[in-house]
UniProtKB/TrEMBL annotation:
Record's protein name: Phosphatidate cytidylyltransferase
Annotated GO biological process: peptidoglycan-based cell wall biogenesis
Transmembrane segments: 7-27, 47-78, 90-109, 115-138, 150-169, 181-201, 222-240, 246-269
Catalysed reaction equations from the record: a 1,2-diacyl-sn-glycero-3-phosphate + CTP + H(+) = a CDP-1,2-diacyl-sn-glycerol + diphosphate
GO molecular function: phosphatidate cytidylyltransferase activity
Organism of provenance: Frederiksenia canicola
Classification via InterPro entries: PC_trans (IPR000374)
Domain of life: Bacteria
Membrane topology: Multi-pass membrane protein
This enzyme's EC code(s): 2.7.7.41
Length: 312
């Protein structure tokens, strides 16, 4: 069920996308469709249209629709991660456990509102189960490395991402549960805006790279400008949340930092395996993990921070 506030937010987002699409068409007319920068820009705008429409469709079906959406996102993210790091056939059953046991059970706990098991199932039971399953193959070659890869895959792609729909089931003081979708919108908008604004500030100002070996395109000016701009945006969104303006700014700053660090970690994994993107599923954005890498690290911190300080 979409509340009036959510409707207004999506109306504003669609207005921005319409303006961006018009600007993109004007630039294509001026510089030509074969210009690589313009082509990349229009591809990104088109991708944002699709992603926004999918998110709206999930929100229309409320908690169940949103949970199913992120279940599917986790499934695709798992597949991308597995495709990149999976090397040994003996790890097949560890992959099966991730896809067909850990993934559905974790999201069942989200739907069941069972916070106790939701919060420990993968960090405890999944952490212990995956190396046990791997050992059953009898293959000891690089065993610790292989087990750690599957554990990391489950933590990032399932556990971390499952915190996004889990926001809908919080019971916060003075904040009606029907408005919990606004908590989710606050986080996604802030973290994604930080990514976009870091790119824009980096292109506008330029300057030295912040971590050239991990992310060659990120600059110091882009990172600082993007995070501070997104923090200001978070403060402006305070009225749709249970946070004061200063609280919204502080939370926004923290999740922007976590999103930035998450992007660096995920870039390190890609660079270690010699690839630029996790996949090519989303035109202009790479794979699913390229789009949600910052959310993977921001969502758990945001969820537990909000639950600790505002939970009823």
């Amino acid at each position: 069920m979409i509340t009036p506030q959510v409707g207004y937010i999506f109306a504003a987002v669609f207005a921005v996308l319409i303006i961006a699409s018009v600007i993109g068409e004007m630039l294509k007319q001026k510089y030509g469709v074969k210009n690589p920068t313009i082509a990349n820009l229009t591809a990104r705008i088109d991708a944002w249209w699709v992603m926004t429409l999918i998110l709206l469709a999930a929100f229309l079906f409320g908690q169940i629709g949103t949970t199913i959406l992120f279940f599917l996102i986790s499934f695709v993210a798992l597949r991308e991660f597995m495709t990149l790091v999976y090397r040994k056939r003996s790890d097949y059953y560890s992959m099966v456990v991730c896809f067909y046991l850990l993934l559905p059970i974790q999201y069942y706990f989200v739907l069941d509102h069972w916070y106790g098991m939701f919060s420990i199932f993968i960090p405890v039971y999944g952490f212990l189960l995956l190396p046990i399953v791997a050992s059953m193959s009898g293959n000891t070659e690089h065993f610790l490395e292989r087990a750690a890869k599957t554990q990391w895959m489950a933590m990032i792609c399932i556990f971390c991402l499952s915190h996004v729909p889990a926001l809908l089931f919080l019971n916060l003081d003075g904040f009606h549960s029907d408005n919990n979708i606004l908590l989710l919108i606050f986080m996604i908008a802030t973290v994604q805006a930080s990514d976009v604004l870091q790119y824009i500030w980096g292109k506008l100002v330029g300057g030295p790279k912040i971590m050239p070996r991990l992310s060659p395109s990120k600059t110091v000016s882009g990172t600082v400008g993007g995070i501070l701009s997104a923090t200001a945006l978070a403060a402006l969104m305070a009225p749709i949340t249970p946070f004061s303006y200063w609280q919204a700014a502080a939370i926004g700053f923290v999740i922007c930092i976590m999103g930035f660090l998450g992007g660096l970690v995920m870039s390190a994994i890609k660079r270690d395996h010699g690839v630029k993107d996790w996949g090519n599923m989303i035109s202009g954005h790479g794979g699913m993990l390229d789009r949600v890498d910052s959310i993977c690290f921001a969502a758990p911190v945001y969820f537990h921070f909000v639950r600790y300080f505002w939970n009823g």
